[in-house]
Amino acid sequence: MKKGLNVISIFILTAAVIVFSKPPGTDLKFSHKYHIVEVEVECSDCHSAADTSLLSTDNLLPDHKTCSECHEIEDNCKLCHKNEETASAVPRIQNYIANFPHIKHKSDKLSCEKCHSRIKESESIAEKHLPKMSVCTDCHNDVSRTDYCFTCHSKGENLTPPDHELAWKKQHGIASYMSSNNCAECHTKNFCIDCHRKDNLDHKTHPLNYVNIHGIYAKGNKDNCYTCHEELSFCIDCHRQKMVMPRNHASANWSNRTTGGAHARAAKLDLDSCIGCHSDINGNPVCIECHESKK
Q1: Residue 215 and residue 250: Cα distance in Å, rounded?
Q2: What pLDDT is recorded for position 286?
């Protein structure tokens, strides 16, 4: 019984240490907003090494000497630290990408806030404001290049996202539908098409005879089609190439000069479907072109 209580006590103490202990540097009182907006300090005043930095491993954080240029910090730890007894330096960020030269980006006249967004609003040192990959791909977006990833990443680095686990092949369609922009950061649309075409040979993506029955699926779930195929344009191009005509267009009364026929009633009920095929380059219906010629 006593041994059991000791184990429980150790567990509680360990949990308390984890909960109440703070990572080094988090007790620092620092507001980027105050320095940038109110005092109008330039980023390079504190991060001077960034202007010439060639490696992402360079330490660009300001030291005591930098702070002392404006602040009286000698024997005055409380000016910046909440608790002088536990005062510690801000730790370096370890999960940085391999290749990142600040000097190159500075020479391209990019503002610091272009990559470190909302830094002017930051009032806590806990906010890192490191750029996400989507920020990088605003400029570095040539995913068709075979060495695209290694513009920033090292060749020995594991670039597989955490969510690309064993079941990813079956689940990725849902993720792509929810946020296709995330996929586009690494993959071109041709990547999807090439892979799915290969799967089609084994009937993994679409079942046998899908060409003949796909219309039924498309009417019921267009959004799924659009995850791979451009809205309407893909359908139209293929239908025109194969000379496919909707079934109702074959009826004897589809076009009637006197009453307009069945096509007039169909257009009133669902003009969007008509525009899908009968429209100009801007998507405007071309009804008037035909009707004018028959006057």
Answers
A1: 17
A2: 74
